[in-house]
Specification:
Elements lengths: L11 E4 L21 H10 L4 E5 H4 L6 H18 L2 E6 L18 H21 L3 E5 L4 E2 L7 H18 L4 E5 L8 E2 L4 H8 L8 E6 H6 L4 H10 L3 E6 L18 H13 L8 E4 L14 H19 L2 H9 L3 H13 L4
Helix pairs in contact: 4-5, 8-9, 9-10, 11-12
């Protein structure tokens, strides 16, 4: 555990422009009008956020020539600077192109694998141009619908080879692997944080290889986000988080942080706070969706509510008497310890 700091961490917050959406889902069309991209960027400071999460094609279209790409990136960078924002992460959106229906880095088609690698390198160049060091790999289609479709051992090697190629392409970039056990693929090759951390040590530069952990992804794997985050923190590899909540082992719901399981959300904040997350500038990122029934005018409440929940739970965490916690631990008085936490969450002193 990190030594206690003399001053509390001042957390910085981020979200992605896709978190302000039209409400479309696989079973229905949009229910809200699209918000202009410039308006989304302006909303960040209005909501009290500091940074923006980007996919490469959130910044510029994926098929632009390089000169046009640089011009487009410069325009977005100017807007960010004008709003007092910075780019927290940039990620290649490899899962929506027709050439990646059988995977990107793990496709059975060499030409499709090359497309994925070329786009990934271009994404690193975009990240550099916009001033971002954190490069996220969500390996969305690196898996199978049936296991015999690919050689799993070969697929893992191809993921590592692609990861290494990106590290070699840009000597400053840090790659954050984002694990998810399912969806859109039936079975993922790197389904958990443990799998992803293991891969980081097989790369050519483990010091530039870490993870981003999303609460819902851990829950979908049947795991506790707080424990996953603690594991990555032990390895010194938790470089970003996507906080949200999840109603069981279903599809990825991206609900407001703390809206389903308040104790689980408390545990997450406890783990981050007690282990010094944020002291090196890491952001508290959100990945949340507004309910489909939400109107356009209220389609940003889910973001402000999630940030509020984090800050309120942080206040509760900081208010728990750590000396009392240690005393209960020393005497294995876990029933009393549990009631201490429950009382804190309920605002009671007795």
């Amino acid at each position: 555990m990190s030594p206690a700091a003399t001053t509390p961490t001042t957390y910085r917050f981020s979200f992605g422009p896709w978190n302000i959406s039209t409400g479309a889902d696989p079973f229905g069309p949009p229910v809200r009008k699209e918000m202009e991209f410039a308006r989304k960027l302006k909303a960040y400071k209005e909501l009290g956020f500091d940074a923006v999460q980007f996919h490469d094609d959130d910044i510029v279209p994926a098929d632009l020539d390089w000169n046009s790409t640089l011009k487009g990136v410069a325009e977005v960078k100017k807007v960010l600077d004008g709003e007092g924002l910075f780019a927290e992460i940039v990620a290649p959106r490899l899962w929506e192109d027709p050439r990646t229906i059988d995977g990107a880095f793990t496709s059975n088609n060499p030409a499709d694998r090359q497309y994925a690698l070329d786009r990934s390198k271009r994404c690193a160049d975009i990240a550099r141009a916009i001033g971002c060091q954190n490069y996220v790999l969500w390996l969305a289609r690196e898996g199978t619908y049936i296991r015999e479709a690919k050689c799993a051992r070969t697929a893992i090697g191809r993921i590592v080879d692609a990861w290494n190629a990106i590290l070699e392409h840009d000597k400053q970039i840090r790659i954050l692997g984002e694990a998810k056990p399912n969806e859109p693929m039936d079975q993922a090759y790197l389904p958990t944080v443990g799998h992803m951390v293991g891969i980081t040590y097989k790369t050519i530069d483990p010091s530039r290889s870490g993870v981003l952990i999303e609460s819902a992804h851990s829950i979908l794997a049947g795991l506790d986000p707080a424990d996953d985050m603690a594991y990555a923190l032990y390895h010194g590899k938790l470089w970003s988080v996507h906080l949200n909540d999840q109603n069981g082992l279903k599809y990825d719901q991206d609900k407001v942080f703390g809206s389903v399981d308040l104790r689980r959300a408390f545990n997450t904040v406890w783990t981050l706070e007690k282990n010094g997350y944020g002291r090196q500038g890491e952001c508290v990122g959100l990945d949340v969706k507004a309910m489909r029934t939400t109107t356009f005018e209220e389609s940003m409440y889910h973001l402000s509510h999630s940030k509020t929940m984090f800050l309120r739970l942080l206040e509760v965490v900081r208010g728990v008497d750590q000396r009392q916690v240690e005393e209960f631990r020393a005497h294995r008085q876990y029933e009393q310890l549990e009631m201490l936490i429950l009382n804190a969450l309920m605002g009671r002193k007795d």
